[in-house]
C-alpha cells in the first residue's frame, strides 16, 4: 500500500489551493473532493469482496469523473483485501492514470471522520491547513445560494460556522498529537499566502515530495467554470481578500469568538472581545447542540449507507 497524503482543513481554509499546487507535483496525484471513503468503509467489512466493492465503485460520481474503466479497477482488486488496501487500489489506479507514483486526498468532510480515516490508512500523512476562522466564516457565508445543498450541516451564521470550525480544528489537532510530527504537519493559510514558496517547500519536505517552483504556476490551468465559489483560483495568492476586522460585523465577531475563542487563542489569533458569563454559557450550549446533531446525523448516515437501498439511489455510472 502506498503512503497517502491527506490535506486537512475546515471548509474555506485554503485546502483547495494547496491541493491544486501539490497536484502539480510529479510525485503525487490529488483528485477533487471524493467524499466516498466513509461510505465504502461502512459498506464493506474486512476482507473485502472484490466484486461487491467494484460494483460500488461504479456508482460513485467522484470515481466516474476519474475516467477509469471497470478493467482499470478490477485488475487491482483481489480476494482477502482490507478496506484500506481496496481503497488504496482505487486511488492508485487514478494516480497511475495521471502518471504519478502516489495519491492524496482533499475532502474537508473527512474532518468529521479522522479516526476512521486513520484506522483505514495507519501510515497516512496529514497536512492541516489552518485559517483564522473568522475569515473562513466570511468566505463560507458568502457562497452563493444554490452552490451548496443547504441543510443543518451547512451553517447559516457566524456562530454556526464557529461550531464547525472549532470542532474540526480540535479534532485534527488531537489527531496530530496522537500520530506525532512524523505524520502530521500544520501550516497557516495566512503564511501560505504571504510566502507560498517557503510554505509549499516545507510541505514537500514533510511529505517527501520534490519541490518545484512550477508547482505554483497554477493560474490559468484550473477549470473552475462550474465552481463559482472557487474563482480565486484564477488569480495568484493574494492577501487581504477576506479581513474579518473590516468586513465582519461586530455582532458576528463577538458571536464567533464566544464559541471559538479558546481555539483562536491557542492558535495565537487576536481576539477582539473574549466571551465571559452568559455569552460564554450560551456559546457552550450551542456547541454541545451542534455536536449532538452531528453525532445523530453520522449515525443515520452510517445506517443508510449499509442498507441495500443505497444502491438503488446510486445507479452505475460507468
Explain what this protein looks like in three dimensions.
By secondary structure, the chain is mainly alpha-helical. It has a single domain, classed as P-loop containing nucleotide triphosphate hydrolases (Rossmann fold), CATH 3.40.50. The protein is 50% helix and 5% strand. The chain is built from 15 helices and four strands. A four-stranded parallel β-sheet has the order 2-1-3-4, sandwiched between helices. Helix 8 (133-141) crosses helix 9 and helix 9 (158-179) crosses helix 14. The longest helix is centred in the C-terminal third of the chain and has 30 residues, at 277-306.
Features:
single chain, mainly alpha, four-stranded parallel sheet, 318 residues
Concise summary:
With 318 residues, the protein is mostly helical. The protein has helices at 15-23, 37-43, 50-57, 61-65, 70-74, 83-97, 114-120, 133-141, 158-179, 189-194, 196-207, 244-247, 250-266, 277-306, 309-312; strands spanning 5-8, 104-105, 125-130, 184-188.
How many domains, as an integer? 1
State the CATH class: Alpha Beta
Spatial strand arrangement across the major sheet:
2-1-3-4
* Straight-line distance between termini: 26 Å
Principal-axes shape call: globular
State mean pLDDT (0 to 100 scale).
Answer: 92
Number of helices: 15
Q: Could you state the order of secondary-structure elements as H and E? A: EHHHHHHEHEHHEHHHHHH
Task: Please tell me how large the radius of gyration is.
Answer: 20 Å
Strand count, sense and barrel status of the largest sheet are: 4 strands, parallel
Unreliable runs:
none
